Amino acid sequence: MIVGTVKEVKTHENRVGLTPESVGELVEQGHRVIVEHAAGQGIGASDADYEAAGAAVAASADAVFEQAELIVKVKEPQADERVKLRSHHVLFTYLHLAPDPEQTADLIASRAICIAYETVTDAAGGLPLLKPMSQVAGRMAIQAGATALEKENGGRGVLLGGVPGVAPATVVILGGGTVGFNAAQMAVGMGADTTILDRSPAVLERLAMHFEGRLKTRFANRTNIADAVARADLVVGAVLVAGDRAPKLVTRAMLRTMKPGAVLVDVAIDQGGCFESSRPTTHDKPTYIEEGIVHYCVANMPGAVARTSTYALNNVTLPHVQRIADLGWRDALATDAHLAAGLNVWNGRVTVEPVARALGYEHLPVAEALAASAI
User: What CATH fold (topology level) applies to the domain 2-119+306-373?
Assistant: First the structure.
């Protein structure tokens, strides 16, 4: 199969879909790989590195799209990329369609096969291709929040860990999954007074045991969330409903109870955000202030640590890329139910129920799409 990867064009997105090492693995298996010029510069990988691994370097993204059958990316295709997609393409990347009607409409119109990293599952019921970026984003959320708390950046002027004789910052984390756990590790490690809220008693028990009293836990009902947010210096939104929009857990009314200069970091912004006042921001202008509260809502946080993020992502995506390249997309999905869960758009139809529901499309089950493709 001809596999292609292009330079990411989303603002300040420095990750890349395939590392030179991943290219080498694909070439060794007999596949042809085409990489756009300078695609890897954000991770310190030169065109020469890709050529040494066996890739052909194309002068433009157009050339990659014209030749490749399987397009491997990191972020959702931007508008000028989506017009290049055709029905023979298989797109494998993060999509986050539920809050993005424009992208969904364009992918439907392209009739391409679109497989999303964030809905691929595993035997334990997890989201293995989302996990490494969730780990990165959870850890970065505390770094970003600590910076935003500085007075010069509009914050309260509070040091996250305090100093002897001065209390540390109060950190509240909404959601005890991968993002929340990694955020808690960072916040607790920096000495912050940290509370995590979740709706699962089992998750709260596991967190309490892991942190051995260094972390407070609360059940995530509306009353407890409102109380915790009002006390917080930093709130991290770390909730996820796979394939669907994030629930709005913090209302504007709650913002008005917060301390002026407190900070919200919305890691759920890719799925529409979990704060009512959230809107996507970029690395070149990561924050804005509403109701006196600093909002950090960067939609591609891991792009700021592109090398770490790209290698972590390739560790989990490459086996699936290899499977699709070896078997073709249909047989790869037909023989792997977990990879099949990643199919979001097929032949102009939406195959993920939460996306169809959120955007008003008829839902076509993946099994029906696979059966139709076999005819």
Answer: Rossmann fold (3.40.50)
